Amino acid sequence: MDRYQLDLDAPGFDRQGTVIRYGHWGRPVLVFPSEAGRAWDYENNGMVDAVAPLIDAGRVKLYCVDSFDAQTWSDRWLPLEERARRHGAYASWITDQVAGFIGGDSPGTSDAIVTGCSLGAYHALQFSLTRADLFPVAICLSGNYDPSSWHAWGERGDAAYFANPTSYLPNLGGDHLDWLRSRLFAVLVAGQGAWETHPTGALPSTRHVANLLAEKGINHELDLWGHDVSHDWHWWQRQIAHHLPRFC
Predict the structure, then answer these.
(1) Alpha carbons within 13 A on the beta-carbon side of 174
(2) Is 57 helix (H, G, I), strand (E, B) or coil?
(3) Which residues of the chain form beta strands (DSSP E)?
(4) Is 188 helix (H, G, I), strand (E, B) or coil?
(5) Edge-to-edge strand order for the sheet containing 27-32?
(6) In angstroms, rounded to a whole number, what is the distance separating the alpha carbons of residues 172 and 154?
(7) 16, 29, 221, 222: which could form a disulfide with 210 (CB 3.0–4.6 Å)?
(8) pLDDT in tens, 115-162
(9) Sequence-ordered list of residues with C-beta below 8 angstroms from that of 79, at least 6 positions apart, any chain
């Protein structure tokens, strides 16, 4: 399997961000790590092996990226609005630096899929909703999509509002909503076993966001796995191997 690693400048942060590409051809898949994770976490936790047949067949190219969660959403010393502002710097890194690299590395390929597990699932959904021109398909595994529930405190202004799908989805309308209806498809997956409700809140949040998407007529699929399915990598391996093939 072809593997290539590079670091890209990340303005607003104290280090560069790493991107690792797996594969030689196929539809680009942008992969977010779980909370505070690094680009190599997907490989180290068996997720690359789980979709290796697709990579080897030239159906997908994975682009696994760093998170900067430790300086954004996971920094509990910061009020929510400041966390959201810092998330904006991360969003700019993704859409400017990372998307630019993907576009140059995979010319002529289809629009990218985004995916992630746990907090990475939030990133996948948020980027697909806000930049469906770049990322029209999101595969979200065990996500909690409400940053205001992540030990939040302090003021909540525009930055926190527009970074929270559970806040802005109910108010979507007009031409932008029509465009999302024609462009976006989100797959929301969660188990019903250990750690999916407590402490992560992934299961109730997944159900809630699916209801919000349904109310707005945005194309999506809710896939709830069994009561034995926990918030853990060995289940996420099975889930991504199950869902990814039909999009590439």
Answers:
(1) 3
(2) coil
(3) 3-8, 17-22, 27-32, 60-65, 113-117, 137-141, 185-190, 220-224
(4) strand
(5) 3-8, 17-22, 60-65, 27-32, 113-117, 137-141, 185-190, 220-224
(6) 25
(7) 222
(8) 999 999 999 999 999 999 999 999 999 999 999 999 999 989 999 999
(9) 152, 153, 154, 155
